[in-house]
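ERR on first pass: missing label on line 2. Operator R.T. fixed the label and resubmitted. Corrected input:
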Amino acid sequence: MGYLLSTLKSLYATLRQALSKPTTVEFPKVKRERAPRIRASFALTKDAAGDENCIGCKKCEKVCPSEVITVVASKKPSPVTGKARGYADDFTLNLQACIICELCVQVCPTDAIIMVKEQEAPGFSRADLTLTMDKLYKNAETKEKWAWANATVLGEHQKPAEEKKPALAPKPVPAAAAPTPTGAPATATPATAPPATAAPTAPATAAAPATNAATLAAARSPASVSPPPADEKKGGA
Amino acid sequence: MSNDATYDPTPSNEELEAHLQTRNMVLNLGPSHPATHGTVRLRLELDGETIVKMDPEIGYLHRGFQKSCENVTWMQALPYTDRLDYVASLTNNFGFLSAIEHLMGVEIPERAQYIRVVGAELHRIASHLTTAAALGLELGGFTAFLYGVEARELIIDRVTELTGARLTTNFGRIGGLNRDLPPGWAEKVLKSLVKIEELTAEVDGLLTRNRIFTDRTRGTGVITRDDALDFGFTGPCLRACGVSYDVRKATPYWVYDRLDWEVPVGMNGDNFDRYYLRILEIHQSIKMIRQALEQLPEGPVIIDDWRIVLPPKDDVYGTIEGLIAHFKVVMEGVPVPPGELYHSTESANGELGWYLRSDGSGRPYKVHVRAPGFQILSGMQRLCEGRMLADLVPTFDTINMIGGEVEQ
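pass 2 clean. output:
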């Protein structure tokens, strides 16, 4: 009797489901809308004047956990402003091994590499999955409407709600201004210049690893921090 | 012909009852078997349909996780943790980050703690739903599985909106989170939870009181409380034996001590208890998420310390300190002070422990992960030996071995 009851119950559930609206969609005909923040593919951007944003600092190459980014950097005069600055001569991102962790986008100091969400082009050869520099710049033109993240926007996502700006704000720094604080690609600068200029901060970080958050916070230059460290936020709720 | 008088055509009793000289059959289940969750090979020695000996053989999914961590910075090791228990990757992400933060002595903002609870519980529901509903699939009840997957898809959609990826989330950063909640996300989660509750009730209704299901699950895959403790079982597999041990209650981390919830405990340690315990835990997790979203405070989601987190973009462009801090965090990694610690959090399958050792450079000196699945898989012979082959597959489902976390 128990068997019969259970079977009837299952059949009833099946019947009810058969008559209701399906929860799945037929993929090639109907495409489900992707989440606004989905991580899918990449693009390299140019600024308003048409100059490449990438300064060849190789931070993305360094931070990539699966080591799929290769950057060949050099210093040459900008075709737009004429000033010498760092450029990526070659930039390759191998999507076959990419784990799409968004770290490269997050660390980019000039918002050059961005995340685009649509990736509806499975390749027919291995070469199709290697994003060369040309493909990356082309992605920025053809897939711009799908771009949702660059380093600045990802930083905005971290901020508390009241300070948040609308998504993907226009790039705040024109190409001419980017090199001025450093004067050279970011890789070269801190190695030589900072120990003299930022003596109170940099040696403290390098020499003695502090043991807790309070000393970590104290070791930093207080002028550069706007809100106080997290310890004060404990009282809420 | 002299023998004719003594010839007796009927065989003697000894002959009839003599043991038939057979050998045990060796059967390989896996490595690529649809019933093995992850790539694992089970070498079975069968006497008829009874399992005489079971020998799980791992190594087919070995990716050298622990060794790989030594070659990258702490932050770069985070995406690797997605691939441990890929059904519930947020619990791995947050557990790893929590261990690093303990080693550094950093306390994360309250809002981040609440969001971590929400994320971890969401993925715990996803994992439990997969396990509980797939048990129906293993026993021939496909309908329940589809309800489970539908509910899991809802969770994965919410996780995608939050993190940007379906399974490999890489969410959270040392000192907090890399992202605040998207606008309107909390309401969507609450709406989804209602639907998930309905679908869980469907799974529950289809399986729990189903005669065929209970006949197949009650009394199979039994392990005693003492054996489970000896083997180092944790999580639902241990609690099904009657031990009320949950890391979230035993040593509360984040804000678990501020939420009102209970630890469900089983009695018999069989497949049915392990299944039903998961259903009960789904309800507890739903309860927790509702409370956490209700109590969610305003504020930052990440600490403001440039030695640990990336500085805001304005400071990277505008100040030399910001530029240096950015460079140091990216190139050298977060400086974790020298020392070692063991820290554990409750993942979907049990106690996920991290033994970390740092030598003060930006890279881990050693990362050891105590994945709950390993101990459970090693104790699985005790659940299967002397029992029927047909019960192996459901047992293998309820212990929920995930190949990714067993092999590090």
